[in-house]
Amino acid sequence: MEKTARQRAKTEKNKIIKLLKARGINDEKLKMLQSVISNTAMLKAKLDDAQNEIEEADLVDVYENGNQSGTRANPAITAFSTLWKSYMAGMKIILDCAPEPAVGKTEEPNKPKNMLQIVMEKRKEA
């Protein structure tokens, strides 16, 4: 059975809260952000719905309105764009309030970060 938008939003909300807690956000900030988190999570669920709807859609739509006809931007794509902008604004607020992740916390101290470092270490060993 497919999840409803509300269920998917709740899952997304929990993911955002988990991310914020992993970054060490304090409870007071988290409480203040609840509304932003809830709305952003719902926007994410609606974005997923809109994305599924527009996957096969054309960018322009032919319309007829009485004796007028022409082309216009596809309303579904326009709605998706509006949802996307609102979602990104919400995520910006959330991420701006989140503490920076601890540098080096997830990396092993001597583990190379990229291919250049691997090559340089191999040269040193040779």
Structure description:
This protein has 126 residues and is mostly helical. It is built from five helices and two strands, in the order αααββαα. The chain has helices spanning 5-22, 27-32, 34-54, 75-97, 115-125, and strands at residues 60-65, 68-73. The protein has a two-stranded antiparallel ribbon with strand order 1-2. A hairpin with a 2-residue loop joins strand 1 and strand 2. It is extended and about 80 Å long.
Brief overview, please?
The protein has helices at residues 5-22, 27-32, 34-54, 75-97, 115-125; strands spanning 60-65, 68-73.
Unreliable spans are: none
- Give me the count of strands: 2
The secondary-structure class comes to: mainly alpha
What assembly state would you assign to the polypeptide chains in this entry? single chain
Strand order, main sheet: write it out.
1-2
Separation, N- and C-terminal Cα atoms: 58 Å
Outline the biggest β-sheet: 2 strands, antiparallel
Helices and strands, in order, run as HHHEEHH
Relative helix content = 55-70%
Principal-axis shape equals: extended
Instruction: Provide the residue-averaged pLDDT.
Output: 86
What count of helical segments does DSSP give? 5
SS strand fraction? 5-15%
Radius of gyration equals 22 Å
Task: Record the SSE blueprint.
Blueprint lengths: L4 H18 L4 H6 L1 H21 L5 E6 L2 E6 L1 H23 L17 H11 L1
Antiparallel strand pairs: 1-2
Characteristic terms for this protein:
126 residues, mainly alpha, 5 helices, 2 strands, 10% strand
